Each structure stands twice: as C-alpha cells, then as structure tokens.
Amino acid sequence: MSYILPVDQLEVLVLIDNVTDSLSTNSSMAISEWTGLLTAGRLQLLSGRCTCCAHHGLSLLITVRLGNAAHTVLFDTGPEASTFLRNAEILGVDFAAIDAVVLSHGHWDHGGGLEAAIEKIAKARNGQRVDCFLHPGMFAERALQRPNGELLKFESVPSPDVLAQAGANVVNTRAPQFIAEGTFYLSGEIPRGTSYETGFPGHVRRSDDGQSWEPDPLIMDERFISVYVKNKGQIVFSACSHAGIVNVLTHARSVFPSIPLYGVIGGLHLSGATEKVIPETIADLQQFGLKLLAAGHCTGWRAMSALARVFGDELVPSAVGKRYTV
C-alpha cells in the first residue's frame, strides 16, 4: 500500500499529559476531562480518586472511523505504568479495541508504561498479540549532559524481547508503515531541513563500545503518525517534535503532497534550551494553514503564550482526559 485511506472521523483521547485542565473553555472540537466523564456517566463524585493524574509525558489513544469500521492506535504510554493504568481505567479505555501500539521515540516519558500497556492489551484480547511499532535506535542508553558536565541518565525503554514476552508482535524497523488497514501512516526518519531546529541540546547516548558517550541531539528514532480526515486534511501527531515541528510538518506535507495539512497534536518541545527558536518556529508554522493546534506535553508555557497570540482559537491546548473529535 502506498497511500493513506481517508477516514470519516477522528477521535483523540489524551491519556497522559503534563497538565490537567477541566475548567477552561474549549472549541467545538474538544471537550475537557470532567465534561467527558460526566457525559459518559463515569463521574458521580468530584474527587481526586475519580479524576485523572497529570504526569510529565504523553499518551494518546487515537481512533478513526471509516463507514462501520473503527480502528484504534495507542501512541505512547507516558512515563510509568501506574499513571497510565489509573487514567485508562478512569477514562474507560477498551483495551481489546486497540489495533496497534506505536512508541514515538526512545524516551522514558513516552515509553515508561509500554510493557504494562502491552500486557493489558494482550490480556483483553485473550492472548492475541498486538502489533507494536518500534525503531532500532530507541534502545541505546541515553542521558542529559548538564552544564557542569555531569550526566543525568534516562531510564531505558523496554526492550523488544521484554515487549514480545508481554504480548507484542514487535515491528522494529526504520521504514515507514501503514497501520490499521491503511488508516494510519507511521513515518520513517524525519529529514532535518530548517537551519534553527537543531534538536535537543545536551542529549547524549551510549556509544557502540558500551563505555563512552556521544552527542545525540537529533534523536533520529523519533517518528510521527498522520491520519487523513475526509474533507479536512492531515492530522499529524508529533509526540515531542525533537526533529522540530516545522521539519515534521514539512515532511508530512511532502509524503502526501495532495493532502492539505489540517492540524497537529502533541508536544512541540519549545521549552528549556529550545525556547530561543520560538519566534522562528511560530513564523514558519503560519505557512501550513493549520485549523487545529493541540499543543501540550513539552511545548512549554512561553511557547504556548506566544502561540496563543498568533493562532487564537486554532490553539486548543492538550490536557489529560481531553477528547478531540475531528
């Protein structure tokens, strides 16, 4: 298959994000956690036990509908199992309905709950394995080199062998993939074309010798998902945008040049050392004509404020438990 199937409807449920926000108003494309729980009859008492927890990380449950068929992909699983499982239970996730799991890149805040998620899905599917899409570059030991030279090591994501033992059909490849009968596109490695999107400063990985460390700012194992909604266009899911969101969207547009870009959902990684490229990023984002900008996770408050000034109602920030329908 060399094309992506257009779908009738897209629904995105945010299982994990850095913030919780059920009080702010939303556009017609989104409802907050509490509203969604009330509508589904899952919130009889407003309490900490009955509502989701925010955690540094991201997990999105993405469902498309095409005619009478529905396909669901789990995109990342947040930083650890307990938050993922807790929020999924509160939000009423049907694990048996999940067709595939994608890990966007090899960072703990996206893959910490992966093994538990695979186990839960396999059990719900009566032992039937679930496709889990990985990239071979995800499994090197990684760290952040601090200004004083010290290394802050990252927890490693589960290995392919561990995930296979948990119930995954592991698809470990750099190649792009069409998932769920062609309704989802998983990119290959993202080309880097902009002069200012230079990756994650200070990010390093263990060298092949197993002893030394080497710079790894580009994080080439990062990939995005795209869905084509009829009469609207591509919705791009970029979990952290280490490649730079302009590079991500440029590549998505080049893969399907006849399909306009409609929206982007996920983290834009414009916080910390990358705050300096906020002006250039926002200037170039305007060329894509986005109708939905659901930024969250690692975007950062400075970038979110700047995006709000430029994009207005097109900006619908992500929050845990929020549900988008396009």
Automatic annotation (TrEMBL):
Residues 68-121 form the Metallo-beta-lactamase domain. GO terms for molecular function: hydrolase activity; transferase activity. SUPFAM superfamilies: Metallo-hydrolase/oxidoreductase (SSF56281). InterPro entries: DHPS-like_MBL-fold, Metallo-B-lactamas, Metallo-beta-lactamase_dom, RibonucZ/Hydroxyglut_hydro. Keywords: Hydrolase. It holds the Pfam family Lactamase_B. This is MBL fold metallo-hydrolase. It comes from Caldilinea aerophila.
